[in-house]
User: Which sequence fits this backbone?
């Protein structure tokens, strides 16, 4: 199971269902770690984590324990929040580029995942967004292939293949003969 903490189910009037506060507390760090690895920027991940838990609180009545762990449900929400951000950001950038064609990009490079050597951060930064997501889901959060596939919209087999490919790329860049 790896990086996702288990939470005790709290009996509520609705039956055996965890309380949102318990779920949020137990999964805040894991969701944040996932978003840091997905977006490659700790500050942006902070904002997206907040948006994730706002949306989760609003949609908590829709959570169905029979469909899976609350942690997986939260990561699915986090992924949608991040994809929404990327779409909005892409549209904003396209508008800006139409008006500021030829201007150099002066934004600082994104922060890499914390605690990693510089060569590993650089190598992770060169992975595609999809590859970073699979690494975050399987390695950082410790989701199994079926859960990671559910979040990423892939089959478990495709998750395994993507992870193998991403790890191979990292190994080729970081482990030099």
Assistant:
């Amino acid at each position: 199971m790896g990086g996702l903490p288990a939470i005790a189910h709290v009996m509520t009037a609705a039956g055996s269902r965890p309380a949102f506060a318990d779920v949020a507390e137990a999964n805040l760090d894991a969701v944040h770690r996932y978003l840091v690895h997905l977006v490659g920027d700790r500050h942006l991940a902070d904002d997206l984590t907040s948006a994730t838990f706002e949306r989760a609180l609003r949609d908590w009545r829709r959570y169905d324990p029979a469909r899976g762990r609350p942690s997986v449900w939260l990561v699915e929400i986090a992924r949608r929040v991040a994809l929404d951000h990327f779409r909005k950001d892409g549209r904003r950038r396209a508008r800006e580029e139409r008006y500021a064609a030829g201007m150099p990009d002066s934004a600082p490079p994104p922060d890499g995942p914390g605690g990693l050597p510089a060569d590993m951060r650089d190598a992770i930064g060169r992975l595609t967004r999809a590859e970073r997501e699979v690494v975050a889901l399987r390695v950082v959060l410790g989701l199994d292939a079926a859960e990671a596939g559910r979040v990423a919209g892939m089959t478990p087999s495709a998750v395994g293949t993507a992870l193998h490919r991403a790890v191979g790329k990292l190994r080729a860049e970081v482990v030099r003969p």
